Amino acid sequence: MKISNHTPYFGEPYLRVEHWDTDTDDPLNKVYARLGAFQLVSRIRTGSALVLDQHKIAKINALNITGGECTCGTMALKEDNRACPISLWQFITHGHTYIGGVETFMDFYNRRWLATDQPGIAIAMHNNRAYRNLLSLAPERTKKLDEHVLRQHAPDAIKGYVAYSHRGWRVFKVGDILFDPWYKDESLPMHKWGRYKIGSLDDSWLSAQRFKKYL
C-alpha cells in the first residue's frame, strides 16, 4: 500500500494505530478510521528535524486553487537584547487576510477549500470535473481564484461554505439544514438545528456565518 505524503515536510509516511491523545513529534499525515478512543492514522517520519518541502509549496501556489499563497516572511524576536530575525511561513489570501501557517495551507489544499477574506469562513469544493478543470487551467488563468471568481466562473465546483476554527469545522451544503442557533433540540447534533433546508449558496454562507460563532 503506497501512502502519499500530505504534509508540507520531507519524510516517509507510515501507518500506526494510536490513542486519540498520543503525543509524538511525527506530523500527522492522515486519519483513516476511528474506533472509540483509538484511530488508524499515517504519520511522517521526519528524522531529527522538520524540513519544509519548499518545492511542494511552490507547486501548490502555482495551481492558484487555495484562495491565497503561502510565502516566507521574517519576524524579529528579541533575545539577549538583540533582534533575531526568524523565517515565518504564512498563508495569506489574495485580499491580504492572514489565514494561518504552512500546515493550515496544506489542510486547505488537501481538503479542497478556498480561503475567503471573512475570518473563519471558507468554500469547500467537489472533487469533480469543474474542480479538475480549475487545476488543469491554472497556468492559463489570468485572474486570481477567489470567492467572486469561483462563484462566477465555476459554480459547479462548489460543495458549500465551511465554518472553521482551530477547534473544528463543518461544511454546509445545499440540502442540509439551515443552521438556526435559536432552534434548540438536544436530541440533534448542533449543526442540524433549524427548520428549513439550505436552498442556495447564499443560505450555505449564512449557515456557516451563524455556526462559526460556536466553534
Bin the strand percentage.
25-35%
Structural class: alpha+beta
Portion of residues in helices?
10-25%
Q: Topology as H/E string?
A: EEEHEEEHEEHHEEH
**What gyration radius follows from the Cα positions, in whole Å?**
19 Å
Arithmetic mean pLDDT = 91
What global shape is seen?
globular
Terminal CA distance:
36 Å
Number of domains: 2
Please give a structural write-up.
The chain is an alpha+beta fold and 215 residues long. The chain has 2 domains: 1-51, no CATH class; 54-214, no CATH class. It has 5 helices and 10 strands. The strands form 3 sheets. Strands 7-8-9-10 form a 4-stranded antiparallel beta sheet. The two termini are 36 Å apart.
Structure summary:
The chain is an alpha+beta fold and 215 residues long.
Features:
2 domains; three-stranded antiparallel β-sheet; 10 strands; 215 residues; globular; alpha+beta
Topology:
Elements: E1 12-19, E2 28-35, E3 38-45, H1 54-63, E4 68-79, E5 82-93, E6 98-100, H2 102-111, E7 113-115, E8 121-125, H3 129-136, H4 147-153, E9 158-165, E10 168-173, H5 201-211
Antiparallel strand pairs: 1-3, 2-3, 4-5, 5-6, 7-8, 8-9, 9-10
